[in-house]
Amino acid sequence: MLLRPTSGDVSSLGLDTHRRRALTWTLCLGAILALSMVLGILIGTSETSLAQATNVLGHHFFGRPLTNTLADAVIWDIRTPRIVLAAIVGAGLALAGVIMQVLVLNILADPYVLGVNSGASCGAAAALLFGVGAGFGDYALQGSAFVGALVASALIFGVARAAGRLSSIRLLMSGVAVGYLLSAATSFLIFSSSSAEGSRSVMFWLLGSLGLAAWDGPLALICLVVAGSLAVLMLWGPQLDALKSGDETALTLGISPDRLRILMLLVSCLLVGSIVAMAGSIGFIGLVIPHLARRLVRGTHRLLAPIAALLGAILLIWADIAARTLLAPQEIPIGIITALIGAPFLLILIRRMSVA
Predict the structure, then answer these.
(1) Which of 90, 278, 296, 327 is deepest in the core (most CB within 10 A)?
(2) How far is residue 347 CA from its own chain's centroid?
(3) Residue 165: its pLDDT value, please?
């Protein structure tokens, strides 16, 4: 007698299939990320060999004798923290993109749609041009950018809540309005500055740069922020799955959509504010990577989050390699590279969506 599987069995089989697929992709992407980081350390304007890189890393991790101090300065002090920062920033932007797209229920949302990036950029421009944030000491740029992100978040919350219930469309419209306002404020700061060199530095930084990467900087703090955000996203994955189905579905399951949106918006603000404070504005990672991750793994947010983080890390590492080497010794702002990669990819996605 042939037995048919029940609906519960079918659902369980489907979930197991998604989990196996996600595990396979996680292992593959993890290996690709490790290889990308090694190549990122080796590739640059100063030629370094695998043997030199192995010696330098062995010296710092295992105490082996160092044979080349120049290679140590290039590999350990410059390239390694930069590659680590690229991986962290790429992962963080991808996670922020996943959050934003479910938060406003819009597949074209990215981490900057709610204006948090504009607030961070405005704070950083004020620090670079007028010395605002001197109280933060050596971290004046990072502190000012983070405060700007918090101010933008407060404005978004205030505007969205003033009209009543905190819905997706109100968050989206409030973010767009606040973003335009703070972008205008940033442009005003640039044009009102009497320092041509300072204005040029701000413009370069606004296009994205990993030049601030250093072991003695806030690199460890950003690692903790991204790791914590990934943990929160995976922990609250089932609630996000319900929210994606609509507020009514979430309410039926005993989930408060407003509280969940506030929590996720705070996580996204922390992510974007920290990243912009360290690396400037880098676009398209948070827009494109979630789409690519969903094509690889069709499942819950718990399965999607680590895949998106790994993809974002890999993409930004290679974008940084291109930014450092294409016009060497001049460095291209990394935001230009990500836009050149992301825009055609987005057009391909739109074309496939229209055909489907």
Answers:
(1) 90
(2) 21
(3) 66
